Amino acid sequence: MEIEKQSKKVLKELSLTLGNINLEETYYVVDKINVTRGDGEPTKYNPNFKIIIRKNAPKMDENGSYIMEAGGWID
Description:
Elements (H helix, E strand, L loop, with lengths): L1 H18 L29 H8 L19
């Protein structure tokens, strides 16, 4: 019974708190739309890139493309 009383109290407090929240949408005016990185010189070739990528994705498919796996925390 004590848990039921506590849960009702928590729900009541939560509903009172949520009742004070402004639920109207906020719109922001932004001067720059579709901001992208400017063209420039390509970065220097990193000779260790292939070694690093093979550590992260050691498997390749029949076309020679790396098979990447999502992190374990991603469903």
